[in-house]
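Render Transcriptional regulator MntR in 3D.
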Amino acid sequence: MPRASPRSLPPPEDHAARFTQQREADRSAIAEDYVELIADLLQEEGEARAVDIARRMGVAQATVAATVARLQRDGLVETKPYRGLFLTPAGQAVASAARARHELVVRFLLAVGLDPETAEADAEGLEHHASEKALAAFARFLAKHEADPK
C-alpha cells in the first residue's frame, strides 16, 4: 500500500472550496437524516411523528418542528393533520439515496474489519461527507472483495 506523503496546505482557493463543500454536506446531512428516519419509521411503525423523531435523534421537539418546516419548504416532507409526517416523491428519492449510501459505507467498513456496531455508528457521519469518487472507490473495493474475499 502506498504511503501518504507529508501533508501540506493546498492553495487557498482549493482549501476554501473543500470547507465550503463540507459545510454544504453538513447542511444536507440533517435533511437526509430526517427523511431517512421518516422513511424508516413509516416502514417499520406505519407512522412518523415528531415526538418519535425527537426521541430517536436526541433533540427537542422544537428542533424537529423547525427542521420539518424547512423540509416542507424544500418540498421533501408533508404533514397531515392528526396523521404525522409523510415524504413527498422528492423526499422519498432523497431517503432512498441516503439509505443506499449508508448501506454502501457500512458494507465497506465491515469489509475492512470494523465490528457491526462501530460500522453503523461511523457510517452515520461518513455517508454524508464521502465524495462520489470515494463512494465509487468503496463500491469497486467491495465488488473485488466480495468476489474474492481472500
